[in-house]
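Following up on my earlier thread - several people asked me to post the actual chain instead of describing it. Fair enough. Here it is, all 349 residues.
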Amino acid sequence: MSPPQDPLPPNAPPAPAPDPDSVDPLRPGQASASSPAQVASLEFKARMLLVFMLLLVCGAAMYVLYARGAFETTQRLVLISDDSEGVVVGMDLTFSGFPIGRVRRIELAEDGKARILIDVASKDAHWLRTTSVFTLVRGIVGGTNIRAYTGLLKDPPLPDGAVRTVLQGDASAEVPKVIAAAKDLIENLNTLTSSTGAVGASMANLQTLTERLNGPGGALTVLLGSEAEAKKFAATLDRTNALLTKLDGLAAKTDTQVFGEKGVMPETRATIVQLNTMLGEARNSLKKVDAVLQDAQAISANAKDATADLGALRADVEANLRKVEGLINEISRKWPFAKDPRDAEIKLP
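Reply from S.P.:
Thanks for posting it. Predicted structure:
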């Protein structure tokens, strides 16, 4: 309710007539001559606002379509998979981590396999070759990924509408196998580390080996199998050392007797010197014989004298040879490794 108005005083001047332009068109009971013009202006502004909003929505839609490659030229790629689990429309086909295509539709083929239709941008189609490999990987964490791999970029490009079989890899499907393998591994470890297992037996043998190493025989007991055998081996080593000591003493005596000042070798050397002297005398005697023979041939008339001279020379040669024979017998007697002196033989010419 509106508050009550105060009554006008009796001598108050009359109220001025209302201005037609200032009449409120929204207040009932008041008439306005400009209300149709204002209504038309409001309608125009509303229409302009609607047109602007429509243009804004259309521009946003066009930008989204342009950003998603709706106006780009593409070529079709069909991937055949056993199932399309995890694959959704709009999923990217990546190459080296960069999106080069997008899944447009998923169909079910007559043979029960899934056909994944992918649109690849023409500007990125040169990355796909006839030898390219396509994979569909489902990770344990994260979504499904479709990837392309190209080993040789010089191969012919992949034609439009090509059909390729995708290689699938499901990491979550390997989890039960990994768990089963880990369970078998744990059971095998428990079997090995038990008291009757191979590792337990090896540890027991290692402990026994350590005790033998720390025992009296040490490593010899481990190598020979028992302490008695180790003692026998030690005794053999002692006897070998004693024998080597005796051999060293014998070798020293042999050196003294053979190579000492009064040993066999110095005497033998002196005897050889004497033998060389005697051989020189025998050589001179033979030269004299040759001279006499030449004289005998020249003087055939005095053959009797020459024959007498030859007999004397021959006696001289035989005496020299007897000296040589005696010297050789003496060498054979002094030399410890020679044959029996009675076996020596000297042939006269």
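Confidence is low (pLDDT under 50) at residues 1-8, 17-33. That should answer part of your original question.
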